[in-house]
Amino acid sequence: MYPVIFTLGAFSLRSYGLLAAIGFLLAVWSVNRNRDYAKLDSDRTSALLMIAMIAGIIGARLFYVVQFYNKEFAGNFWRIIRIDQGGLVFYGGFLLAIAAIIVYCRMKKLDFIRVLDVFTPAIAIAHACGRIGCFLNGCCYGKVTTLPWGVRYPANSYPARMTGNAELHPVQLYEAGEMILLFFLFNYLLKKTGRGVPMSLYLIVYGVLRFLNELSRGDNPHVLDLFTPAQCIGLLLIPAGIISLIYFLKHERKTSDIQH
Questions:
Q1: 57 phi and psi, to 5 degrees?
Q2: C-alpha to C-alpha distance for 149 and 61, rounded to whole angstroms
Q3: What is the enclosing helix (H) or strand (E) of 4?
Q4: In sequence order, what are the beta bridge partners of 13?
Q5: Residue in 211, 213, 135 with CA at minimum distance from that of residue 170
Q6: Backbone dihedral angles phi then psi of residue 2, each to the nearest 5 degrees
Q7: So what's the pLDDT on residue 16?
Q8: How far is the CA of 188 from the CAs of 121, 192, 200, in angstroms?
């Protein structure tokens, strides 16, 4: 656990903030690499990236604050803006960023489906970096495990206090590894599949993976003692992705038939 990389006077470089910055830069590179698929020029690509970043940070932080306000922020309101210390909920950022991208595309008359396709590998690689940052920061920790790769956090750390200093699933690294694989998968799908297919498959695959990963998470509350909030959202994303995939596969087939 390395929440702080180094300190120089009053300045501290925190691992979570550093990994988030690296993730954003890799996402910028990914979107620019694939922007021709959505017929984006450099100006609109830059605008979309800034909109997605700002909306994503706001949404991710809002979801986290709402979920953990009484535990972490009651009586210390200004901690809400300290996102460099962790405390972002991916789904919150994902949903608000998608909404912001769609609004911008509507305003500029862009094909928002192709734009969302382009963003799928970018989201995956940025998410991978964020999860590595979570691991170093000690947030989003896993449940107690007896598996040989279990990790033990420092005795005075938050995960150790919450779990009795037991060995925990490195669930953050599970998800980081999955997202790196998805980054390569969706770069491939952008070249080999039709409009809307990468976006639809992302909803399905990530919804399934996140539902399963939550089984190893040790920090999330449960809704009615059944599922975590992330699992509930995943259960909505999976059928939405399936319906979307069926629609776009049929649409592409009809378009191909007409052209022939």
A1: -65, -45
A2: 30
A3: strand 4-8
A4: 6
A5: 135
A6: -135, 75
A7: 87
A8: 9, 6, 15
